[in-house]
Amino acid sequence: MPQLYKGRTCRKELPNKSNEEYKVKINVNECEIAMEIDTEASVSIMSEDTYKEYKSKFRIEPTSAKLRTYMEEQIPIIGRAIDNVNYKKESPKLPLLIVERKGPNLLGRNWSNKLQLDLEGYFLRRWK
């Protein structure tokens, strides 16, 4: 069962000069989606607001996944989508959980590993 683990997001671990989140734009089902890189999140999630904006581009299926915040609060899940993701030269089909809450879309470890994000280089460039 996928779960968000206790921990800190990247912006809290490695603050940058502008104190902004570490975001990347990813093409998901032909929609450019801003996602916050969260190395503590085991899965990638999309907020309900973003889902409503691009609803016609996503086919949602039921899921038995359970998510919790680092404060152990349960996060209600609308469903799961398997998406066509394009980032640089990578084009895998990846799972995305749609959650019933406001907030940033999170790019979790399940996507960062498949997309071969250069996290170290990304953070070092942003931190300078």
Automatic annotation (TrEMBL):
Classification via InterPro entries: Peptidase_aspartic_dom_sf
Record Gene3D superfamilies: Acid Proteases
SUPFAM superfamilies membership: Acid proteases
Listed PANTHER family: CCHC-TYPE DOMAIN-CONTAINING PROTEIN
Name of the protein in its database record: Uncharacterized protein
